[in-house]
Amino acid sequence: MYEFGEFRLDEAERLLSRRGVTVPLTPKAFDLLLALVDQPGRLLDKETLLSTLWPDSFVEENNLADNIFKLRRVLGDGENGRRFIETVPKRGYRFVADVRAVAPLTAQGPELAPQVVAEPPRQAEAREGQVPLPATNTRRLVTVPWLVAAAMTLLVVALWIGQIRRGTPDPPRLLKASLLPPEDASFGDIALSPDGKWLAFTAATGSRVQLWLRSLAHDKAIPVESTDGASHPFWSPDSRVVGFFASGKLKKVELGGGLPVPLCRASAGTGGTWNREGVILFTVLGVPQILRVSASGGTPEVVLHADPGQTDLHEPFFLPDGRRFLYLAISGGKKNAGGIHVGSLDGKLRQRVLDHDSNAIFVAGDPNDRHRGYLLFGREGGLMALAFDSDGLHTSGEAEPIAARLGTVQGANLSYRRRNFTAADNGLLIYDPHIDRQRSQLLWVDRHGTPLHVLAQLDNVGVPVLSPDESRIVVARKDLATNNNDLWLTDPLGDNPAKFTFDPGSDLLGIWSPDGQRIVWTSTRNGSFDLYEKEVSSQGTDTPLLRSEQPKFPLDWSRDGRFLLYRQIGPQTNHDIFVLPTSGQRKPSPYLQTAAMENGGAFSPNANWIAYSSDESGLVEVYVESFPTHGGKRQISLAGGSGPRWRADGKELYYYSFDGTLMAVSVAGGGASLTTGTPTVLFPFRPASATSGPTYAVTRNGERFLLSAIVETDPKAPLSIVQNWTAGLSTTARYR
Question: How far is it, in rounded angstroms, from Cα 55 to Cα 358?
Fold first, then answer.
């Protein structure tokens, strides 16, 4: 490993970083830089460099010159008097900056004692906060090793040597530690590489969420460039590429550097998995299908549709044969419809394995027999292990807790929270032991984001909507005990919350009628996301408003009461915006139905315009277009946006920007023509949902905002790390 200037070059991991941030390099540019840095001050002739970079090919000197040019541009060679690479005319190149060789962090003897603790086999639960590992500090040249994997391995070797000397080998022991998040950040989704050497995770710094990478042989976590809004990371089988979801797309990024590469549209991903044949399976919120796409990109194809009574599918995970996979099915209220299932790439296999509402993974119990091992999943607030034969698809023994407390991560919206754990076949397990790490909460702020009031009695909430007279709020709330969602009503201060829906299906996304007398929402009680309505003041029944096979989600109700706007997910065009007349034949018709993903429709106060988001440009942006006829279309957001809302007088429009801020845009006109200003920043916040709609409401005068925001109750809480976790299982829980 080398350091020069503000840069660090890691040969083992093939990473170049600057101040802790990964600098993208092509493989040849990296090899060239390594060759130069390895011999600082020495002239390397062109022939030597050409034979080093292209040993088996004849390549013209222009290729070498082109890579030198790329390196100089990346390093900022020549800027502010800095010099790194010197050209020796007609001969070659020399690296002229000071280079410091940095020894890779290693675990040596007594230093390990306070870092990792070995425990007897039956002490399966790690003590929270027991062994905190150092947080990121890019200023240190040599740091206290956190070296989890290497340290644990060395301890195991030491124990094994001791056993050989005694002549009586003992079973592997549990080794436990804690991992602190990067400085000023908090952990989100986590994913171990298949070889157990890297941890990919999302982390929030303020309102900004990014993908990070951390080698388990070093103490430094590195944020990955251009990954804002990342979620649900997963790995390629060779542990060299990370897949993830961001900006309405499925993307991948190489471990060695480079910018993320979009693979396909994926409006709100809820999990992905990758097999050795280059097939990626993934799921999207609100789309009850398992989708497949090539690892090189392309058009997604449907592998498996949800069964009747299932409203959503999440978290696919390939089994060792690369043909069959685990997935989680969400029930719309039908008995025995949900749970952990196994499917196959040919779509012929649909087998229910467990009746648990949790994401699940398979971990091999023996490196020599990867088809027998354990299912890991969440149950009753903890992490469970159950012996499983992935060939015969049958379980054995009893499920046993391996962690008493297991945290969750808010998914793409309120209807889904994933259990936060990950494991590799080398015996390494990482999980979040903090159940209350984050929650969604309602709070009032002013135009500067200054907190005014917290609605403390309501948490785990979704999209808030103010009644037209601003006297009441309707919001969906998740019961973490039952994992069910219902609508609640409350006053603006949140002092008297009252449940509005009581069905065992999920009830979400309530909107008010213009007179404030009725509420329309979406419910899964009939096996799909259908629209229902109910009088607010009465104890009447929930009345079906619109039923069909396609999932539907209400967006807005025109002020004159004539039209209801809703989002529909179709099999061909994905997310579209439809209009439902509230009188006459009440026949719905599409307003926007294209190959792009449209969402977040909102009527202007006079109902002459609709603001919405679309990814037609390749990035989700906010647009305004006339209604009921199309015309006057214009883009409102500048660098990504979603969730538009209008001020009551129509003179201002708001939206959420992907950089984590709420934006405001001035609006003039509004009749036959419309003029919009330049977006301005109001304040940053982290929304509880990235896809369900605008997770904020605004008062009629635009002076106060009601936010449904993610609140970090303990942002510095560490993750728990366990090596040889199977050593803690009882005999009856082991696979046979």
Answer: 51
